[in-house]
């Protein structure tokens, strides 16, 4: 036994204003939902909640897809579940890479043994439907996988035209909408998306740990051709699929669909508290109304951008394809980015984001998402950043930022 063991103090994390690229502060109602009583996974109340979650997320995704459910795990679990369930070794996948999370799709597809072709665009830009069509004609993929809002670059990949191209060429179309959902338009059925996965910790205003996923009937059929029912729960009426079984057990979407389906075939134990949170996130989004929520994100994003520009800071990337909910801003040459971030956290309790890869040390990423897509969060962040930059003698225009942002909230 470790005689030096201590119980530490009662958990009491500091109050922070989370203005990075996610996670963000959750809506108070989501915290309430998280603290509700646990019930058994086959309690009719619980299975009723599961059905409600499916219905609510059909609304969030703007889809009629029967197969709409949660994968238990962070947003990456939804991505991995979709890719590992669709792609068999040797399958061809086309991946437009607009940032770090495009590389993640490649990494997962590579581990599956898929044949990958990428369309690489400079960070700060997005991919065109023409580039996609040319690559599809040449490569003939089974799947096109992309990221909608890539937080690493703050760009929002337009999907409608790519969806039309994929549909016309009979290519399955998947997108990771973790960072964009609920802050930017996402029309799953209208844009011919066959699979979409998301997370709660950005514009949906919840904690990380649950990944809403939706699959078209066609995509569900492709996955179910790989169905394998585990020994111990398999009954005479269960039929094995004709294609090779999915390599992952936990992320086997054929089994997860059976767990969420009428048979409720046992797979994992549904993460009850996270389901409560996901349910409340969707209720909040639908109650406020998708157009209103997205407009609120745009207003906050535009106000922040105007404030930073008025301060004399330069914004990163093509502003016409920027996500509404997170923006990149160049760190002034005179200051060290991490020192400023540290001062913001320690003096004001405000967190903003660093950046990855080619942008590391060059830009900060500031998010205005979910509960934090509000005037007071934008103004407080601008005022705090300005005062720290002045302390470190950055060459900025003082006294302009907050006023410029307030113009968006008349
Ligand atoms: C676009 C995108 N995809 C996936 C993820 C991964 O999410 P998680 O950390 O919840 O697995 C993130 C997280 O920042 C993201 O921004």
Automatic annotation (TrEMBL):
According to the UniProt entry, its GO molecular function terms are: alanine-glyoxylate transaminase activity; L-serine-pyruvate transaminase activity
| GO BP of this protein | glycine biosynthetic process, by transamination of glyoxylate
Name the keywords, alphabetized: Aminotransferase, Pyridoxal phosphate, Transferase
Which residue numbers delimit the Aminotransferase class V domain?
Answer: 46-352
Question: What are the required cofactors?
Answer: pyridoxal 5'-phosphate
Record-listed substrate binding positions: 365
Q: Which residue ranges traverse the bilayer?
A: none
Superkingdom, taxonomy of origin: Bacteria
The chain residues annotated with the modification N6-(pyridoxal phosphate)lysine are: 202
Q: What family, per the record?
A: Belongs to the class-V pyridoxal-phosphate-dependent aminotransferase family.
- The name this protein carries in UniProt is Aminotransferase class V-fold PLP-dependent enzyme
């Amino acid at each position: 036994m470790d005689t030096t063991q201590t119980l530490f103090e009662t958990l009491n994390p500091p109050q922070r204003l989370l203005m990075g690229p996610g996670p963000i502060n959750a809506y108070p109602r989501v915290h309430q939902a998280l603290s509700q009583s646990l019930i058994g996974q086959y309690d009719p109340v619980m299975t009723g909640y599961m059905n409600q979650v499916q219905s609510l997320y059909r609304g969030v995704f703007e889809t009629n897809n029967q197969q709409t459910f949660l994968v238990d795990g962070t947003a990456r679990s939804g991505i991995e579940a979709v890719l590992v369930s669709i792609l068999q070794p040797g399958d061809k996948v086309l991946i437009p890479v607009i940032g770090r999370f495009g590389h993640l799709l490649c990494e997962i597809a590579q581990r599956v043994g898929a044949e990958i072709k990428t369309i690489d665009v400079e960070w700060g830009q997005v991919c065109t439907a023409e580039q996609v069509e040319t690559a599809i004609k040449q490569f003939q993929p089974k799947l096109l996988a992309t990221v909608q809002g890539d937080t690493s670059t703050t760009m929002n990949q337009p999907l409608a035209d790519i969806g039309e191209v994929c549909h016309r060429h009979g290519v399955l179309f998947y997108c990771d909408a973790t960072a964009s959902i609920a802050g930017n338009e996402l029309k799953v059925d209208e844009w011919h998306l066959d699979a979409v996965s998301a997370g709660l910790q950005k514009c949906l205003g919840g904690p990380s740990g649950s990944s809403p996923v939706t699959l078209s009937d066609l995509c569900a059929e492709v996955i179910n051709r790989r169905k394998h029912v585990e020994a111990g729960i398999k009954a005479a009426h269960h039929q094995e699929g004709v294609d090779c079984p999915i390599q992952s057990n936990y992320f086997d979407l054929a089994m997860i669909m059976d767990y969420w389906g009428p048979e409720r075939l046992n797979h994992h134990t549904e993460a009850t508290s996270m389901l409560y949170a996901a349910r409340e996130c969707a209720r909040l989004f639908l109650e406020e109304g998708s157009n209103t929520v997205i407009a609120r994100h745009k207003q906050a994003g535009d106000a922040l951008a105007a404030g930073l520009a008025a301060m004399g800071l330069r914004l990163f990337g093509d502003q016409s394809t920027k996500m509404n909910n997170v923006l990149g801003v160049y760190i002034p040459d005179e200051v060290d980015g991490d020192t400023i971030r540290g001062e913001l956290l320690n003096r004001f309790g405000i967190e903003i984001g660093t950046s990855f890869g080619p942008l590391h040390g060059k830009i900060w990423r500031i998010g205005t998402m979910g509960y934090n897509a509000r005037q007071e969060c934008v103004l407080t962040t601008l005022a705090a950043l300005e005062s720290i930059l002045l302390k470190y003698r950055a060459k900025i225009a003082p006294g302009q930022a907050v006023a410029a942002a307030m113009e968006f909230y008349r």
